[in-house]
Amino acid sequence: MSTSNRTNVAIIGMGTVGAGVARLLIDHGDRTARHAGKTIWLSKAVVRDLNKPRGIDLPAGVLTDSIDEVLDDPSIDVVIQLMGGLSPAREVMLRAMEAGKDIVTANKALLAEHGGELFTRARQLGRSIAFEAAVAGGIPIIANVSQCLSANQILSLEGILNGTSNFIVSQMDEKGVGYDETVKLAQQLGYAEADPAMDVDGTDAAQKLAILSHLAFGATVDWRDIPRSGIDGLDPADLGFAGRLGYRIKLLATARLEDGELELSVGPTLVRKGTPMAEVRDAYNAIRVVGDAVGPVFYHGLGAGQMPTASAVVADVIDMAVGRTPITFQTLEYFSEDRPARAVQRDVAKLRGRYYFRLRVANHPGTLAAITGVLAQHAISISSVIQHEDVACENQNDGGIPTVPLVIMTHEASEGAARLAVEAIEGLDVVDGDVVRMPVRG
Amino acid sequence: MSTSNRTNVAIIGMGTVGAGVARLLIDHGDRTARHAGKTIWLSKAVVRDLNKPRGIDLPAGVLTDSIDEVLDDPSIDVVIQLMGGLSPAREVMLRAMEAGKDIVTANKALLAEHGGELFTRARQLGRSIAFEAAVAGGIPIIANVSQCLSANQILSLEGILNGTSNFIVSQMDEKGVGYDETVKLAQQLGYAEADPAMDVDGTDAAQKLAILSHLAFGATVDWRDIPRSGIDGLDPADLGFAGRLGYRIKLLATARLEDGELELSVGPTLVRKGTPMAEVRDAYNAIRVVGDAVGPVFYHGLGAGQMPTASAVVADVIDMAVGRTPITFQTLEYFSEDRPARAVQRDVAKLRGRYYFRLRVANHPGTLAAITGVLAQHAISISSVIQHEDVACENQNDGGIPTVPLVIMTHEASEGAARLAVEAIEGLDVVDGDVVRMPVRG
Asked: Active-site positions, per UniProt (chains A, B) (predicted)?
């Protein structure tokens, strides 16, 4: 870190976010200087294609297509690593640290995959990594969990961490349109990628939850080990039934400490209407953290987008330049193998909660008795039932018997019992097809 | 600041919050040490009455009734200043800094009154003051505005900053009971002081807004210059009419940058239902900050209470011990006379917004024409009107003419025009008594 009155930075990767970061650094040097106590100077911006238009005028000599120009320049203190993907992003980050640079990054997938290696190497080299922009964009959740709530044992953390999914679910709920049509709209509006798989299948949220779980609970979690389901293929019928029961469906990422074990999950979840989490619309993110001293703290903001993400990146650059990040990084020893894990992940079957089941059943006497009998055998008690008498909802099963939808909301039960009950219910003659199952909050 | 592996702290003032801070420091030394990278050691706790029960067992030798025992002890690094009121709290803080101690405080009134003097003296002495607990208790808004959102020009900041008022208004709204009865309930439940004047008349919220305005906008504001009204004497009728128009009434503190000038106000405000701010219940606080890069960020949490406030105090102690606070304090130069104000307060008459008016009018032809005529003269256009035909609402004015309530919601107008219009309307023969006027958001 330069101790002079100027911190020189380079951006690697001038996509949407990179251009936003450059704009803040170039157009608003007064505010970064005021907060950093020194000038923050954009020395280089590395791109693959020098001729691609980027909607921003960079001073002469800043733009380059050579990473080496950054790595070989000892005057550059901080590398803003905005390359996506795992490789060569990982190699570039390692080389930059070896060249004596501190790192600010927004690459959540890279941290979720290689966090242990990268943070260990940073400590060996006496360098720091800041990553506020990697989770929830404009919500400064990394700083809040690492610093502002440091007097607390965090008891739970749950959030809407994927804006694309939330946009799709909110639109389906408000407009009553189907999944495929809504994905197309999200793509037209720029809220979804051409291939939105990682967003809608829960991968992105699980990677973010793995990072937050490390910071909040001291757990080292492989995001692949987090039980997850996505909103891909969500049936509008479930949004309608949830609404009638007083709930909305949200793609919720949850981490909860129970008896020293950490319950983790990502999936569509029924959230009670009128709670702040249920009212999160559009592409917004939200996170609710419960600390044993502070109680519940709720954060809501834009989870992605050029300037919200750039805001997080530049705050990290300021914290790095002014010297706060190195203190935090060295003290907390993120992802250190020398620090024993403070919580281990709980076996999925032991998770407990309330559940929503939707199934199609034969419309004749004894059906409800058969199903409630199975639930009783698994010690699952029922809090609400919706059984349609509406003829418009009648289909016929393969045997030609009319079927109707049946919705059951349970009291608290274990995930293990819920799974076994679903299997048994799916095996009943009176049940047609699979059971849709989601957890319920609030 | 001690550079050893231990930071010694003393608490001055062992009321509810002091006991909570002591509990966190004594019972949870592991977590403070993990975040501070060193032991945080409670050396002394100063009380007026050594014999008063405090619900916490302190190690032998910690409790004392002598402030000098703290000030004269060079091993004590940080003084946690939890005395209320202005004097002797101010003198004690000055003496502690002169004795070489850094300060963590929750005393918002002291900072609002004497911030300039105290911060200037701290800088002269090379000391730091941390004050997260002074505003919004469990919501870490000081750190978020000072650090996390540092890449932004903050455009507006509005919040529910007084939990007592919010509890009273929410209860009146939900239960339909009157102001006086609700205040008694709040006192029974411990949400309101025996004399709740400073909470319900807007003073407390104005003091907090003055502090936040300094951090967010670089404005030096005397809280007395903030136009303010309280919820004392709020009429349940207005909650009802607001509800019918799709709004709730909240005691809202607002700071908004317009053309380089800062619009400040504290008062009961109509907030649109379904927005996060309108759904803040009980004694919760909430703050919505809009930054030019990050967009809107919304925070919600407990604004007061023993452990939420202690959480903020202990986070400050950790930040002080680990070295982040001194960096922030020295860089940002809070309340420095050497730093020119970046925004000045706008003349109240220039504020613009939508308004809610409620008045009693004579129930005969021409009344509405007379009133809307006055509004038109002042270039104020109307968005909604509720005029009751309900006989149950009919009263009689002094002249024996039946009167009914009339509610008008306007489109955007200036505060100056709204005031003049209200004066003119109150002078009309068809109008009985004063006009109730509140701003409208959303």
From this structure: 208 (proton donor)
Residues 6+ apart with CB under 8 A from A51: none
Q: pLDDT for A18-33, tens place per residue?
A: 999 999 999 999 999 9
Task: Please judge whether A327 and B322 are an interchain contact, meaning their C-beta atoms are less than 8 angstroms apart.
Answer: yes
Q: Are residues B160 and B68 in the same domain?
A: no
Closest CA to A421 of A372, A386, A385, A365: A372
Pairwise pLDDT comparison (A1 vs A211), residue with the higher score: A211
Q: Inter-chain contact B151–A330, Cβ cutoff 8 Å?
A: no
Q: Where are the beta strands (DSSP E) in B61-113?
A: 63-64, 78-81, 102-105
CA dihedral over B69, B72, B76, B80, signed as positive or negative: positive
In the DSSP assignment, the letter for residue B346 is P
* Residue to test with chain B: of A148, A272, A329, most B Cβ within 10 A: A148
Q: A161: buried, middle or exposed (CB in 10 Å: 19+, 13-18, 0-12)?
A: buried
Do A149 and B294 lie within an 8 Å CB cutoff?
A: no
Predicted confidence (pLDDT) at residue A429 exceeds the cutoff of 60: yes
State the sign of the Cα–Cα–Cα–Cα dihedral B61, B63, B64, B68.
positive
CB contact under 8 A, B301 and A323: no
- Within 13 A of B403's CA, how many CA atoms are on the CB side? 18
Closest chain B CA to residue A288: B300
Residue A352's φ and ψ, nearest 5 degrees, are: -125, 150
Strands B344-345 and B261-272: parallel
**Dist CA A101 CA A89 (whole Å):** 15
Would the annotation count B93 as a binding residue? Answer: no
Q: Are residues A279 and A328 in the same domain?
A: no
- Min Cα–Cα distance to chain B from A442, Å: 16
How close, in Å, is residue A427 to chain B by CA atoms? 43
What's the number of domains chain A is made of? 3
* 3-class secondary structure, A414: strand
B193 is known to lie in a ligand binding site: yes
Which residues pair with residue B102 across a beta bridge?
B78
DSSP string, A56-101: S-PPTT-EES-HHHHHT-TT--EEEE---SSTTHHHHHHHHHHTT-
Residue B252 forms part of a structural domain: yes
Query: Residue A392: which domain range?
Result: 349-441
β-sheet bridge partners, residue A232: none
**Angle CA(A296)–CA(A299)–CA(A303) in degrees, nearest 5?**
145
Mark whether B187 and B218 lie in a shared domain: yes
- Taking residues A202-227, report their average pLDDT: 95
The C-alpha torsion from A114 through A115 and A116 to A117, rounded to 10°, is: 50
pLDDT tens column, A319-348: 999 999 999 999 998 888 777 778 889 988
Minimal CA separation from B349 to chain A, in Å: 30
Residue B340 is assigned to a structural domain of this protein: no
For residue A358, is it within any domain? Answer: yes
Phi, psi of A402 (to 5 degrees): -65, 135
Q: How many CB atoms lie within 10 A of CB A201?
A: 20
Here the CATH number for the domain that contains residue A81 is: 3.40.50.720
* B268-306 pLDDT per residue, tens: 999 999 888 998 999 999 999 999 999 999 999 999 899
| Residue A143 resides in a domain | no
Domain shared by A178 and A274, yes or no = yes
- Are B435 and B357 contacting, i.e. CB atoms less than 8 angstroms apart? yes
Same-domain pairing of B73 and B55: yes
Are A296 and A154 part of one and the same domain?
yes
Greatest extent of chain A over all pairs of C-alpha atoms, in Å: 82
For residues A16 and A55, membership in a common domain is answered with yes
* Residues contacting residue B129 through CB under 8 Å, at least 6 positions apart: B93, B102, B103, B104, B105, B118, B119, B122, B329, B334
Q: Are residues A83 and A12 in the same domain?
A: yes
